[in-house]
Amino acid sequence: MGRRRLGRETAFKALYRVDLMGREIEDALAEMADDSGRDAEALDFARGLLETIGAHRPEVDERLRLAAPNWELDRMGAVDRSILRLGIAEILFWKWIPDRVSIDEYVEIAKKYGTERSSGFVNAILDRIARDGPRTESEARESA
Questions:
Q1: pLDDT of 20-58, one tens digit each?
Q2: Which residue ranges make up each domain of the chain?
């Protein structure tokens, strides 16, 4: 497994724990720093993803709500929600990674950790986010 995939999976596991336990992202970052058994480059990648989520969580969640209007965030499965948040953050804020690469990576993580339907759901939502571009509802109101 590549270092970036390992980093994405590490970030997913940490964000999933944060989501389920109602903890803060800073707690997950501190736990990752204590985990010396992991690849340093993968940990740096995971840390960057979690820091991006920490800095942009309201915008990421807003984009998720807009892309999945028939789904309340708290009614989504925690696995899917965590994967989608990471994928959206990567698509919106890590422009040096091609959208298609990000989508493919998170679809693979959904296949590994989610339900039978997770990969299709993740693919559809992330593809919509990538196609719609970096506009949020608040940005749309401001430009109107």
A1: 887 777 777 777 665 545 678 888 899 899 999 999 999
A2: 3-143
